[in-house]
Amino acid sequence: MTMDLSEFETQSPPRGPRCSIHSAYERLSADDRVKLTEALSRTKDTPQYRRIKNIEIAKWLRDRGVSISPMSVSRHRRQECACDDRPE
Ligand SMILES: [Zn+2]
Questions:
Q1: Can you say how many angstroms the Cα of residue 42 is from the centroid of all Cα atoms in its chain?
Q2: How many angstroms separate the alpha carbon of residue 7 from the centre of ligand 1?
């Protein structure tokens, strides 16, 4: 039996405006972009590395002129943001 699960698709986060992490990528230098991607990937699921906290990423971005809250970082990490082509 084929179940119609399209009602889940309508629950996707709305497209654009992009989340703050996405706009951060547009403002960072190439080197910093690579660093940010790496930092975002270091969560509790990567025990071989030290976990990078949301607040640490938010502060690091603020030092680079990007205003962002730890909540936005967290939302992006959980893929609950509006990014549709999330840089990884
Ligand atoms: Zn995002």
A1: 12
A2: 23
- For residue 62, being part of any structural domain is answered with yes
What's the burial of 29, exposed, middle or buried (CB within 10 Å: 0-12/13-18/19+)?
exposed
Query: What's the whole-number mean pLDDT along residues 44-62?
Result: 94
CA of 87 to the centre of ligand 1 (A): 9
Q: How far is the CA of 85 from the centre of ligand 1 (A)?
A: 9
Would residue 82 count as lying in a domain?
no
Residue 10 covered by a domain: no
> What digits encode the pLDDT tens for the residues 23-35?
899 999 999 999 9
Q: How far is the CA of 18 from the centre of ligand 1 (A)?
A: 7
The total number of structural domains in the chain stands at 1
How many Å lie between the centroid of ligand 1 and the Cα of residue 22?
6
pTM exceeding 0.85: no
